[in-house]
Amino acid sequence: MKVERTGLPGLLRITPQVFPDARGSFFEAFRAERYAAHGIPAQFAQDSVSESRKGVLRGLHFQWPHAQGKLVYVLVGDVFDVAVDVRSGSPTFGKWEGHRLSASNRAQLWIPEGFAHGFLALTDRAVFAYKCTAPYDPASEQAIRWDDEDLAIDWPIREPVLSPKDAAAPRLRDIDPMRLPR
Q: Is the pLDDT of residue 36 over 90?
């Protein structure tokens, strides 16, 4: 597998080795010891899968104080995936990176605790997988507005389909700093 560091400390882009043949292909989506060698935990508490139609934007979400690290990848389709550093005091606080993840490129992102995460479905159908280091905790869940002008995320769409909760999310600067990871 190929592991690339990004401009945000802790955020990794992983491309597994794919073994194609006449029947299709095979790749390891996760192997504990290989990922642990790059600082990714071997223990995950929850796996989740979401399915979205083209134009659906999910996020930007994070949990605090019961934070989650996430290993994410696409099973069907194509997405624009975004991670935002929301760690109070971090030198890259409020900085974001976007990566195209797809079933064809097999790329994964390791999003450590302290990052907000969201993605936009770019194909008619996108099936997205998450391996999370902690279970979903509704009391800790928070969201940041997808089009927060301070973040200036360059989403490849101007009018996404949003959940009511995501449409009403605050800007990062409007979140009480005590409710942000440190």
A: yes
Six token digits for residue 24: 């299709």
pTM exceeds 0.85 for this model: yes
C-alpha distance from residue 76 to each of 10, 28, 45, 66, 121 (Å): 26, 16, 23, 29, 10
**Token couple for 95:** 């900085």
Q: Tell me the C-alpha to C-alpha distance, in Å, between residue 78 and each of 68, 72, 75, 129, 173.
A: 23, 13, 9, 12, 30
Report how many helices (DSSP H) and strands (DSSP E) the chain contains, helices first: 2, 13
Distance CA 63, CA 78 (A): 25
pLDDT-derived band of residue 150, with 50, 70 and 90 as boundaries? very high
Look at strands 78-85 and 96-102 and give their pairing.
antiparallel
Phi-psi domain of 117 (left: phi exceeds 0; alpha: psi -120 through 50; beta: other) = beta
User: 6 vs 16, 109, 110, 156, 165, CA distance in Å?
Assistant: 17, 10, 10, 20, 30
Instruction: Report, as residue numbers or ranges, the catalytic residues.
Output: 61, 130
Which CATH fold would you assign to the domain 2-17+44-162? Jelly Rolls (2.60.120)
Spans of all domains in the chain: 2-17+44-162
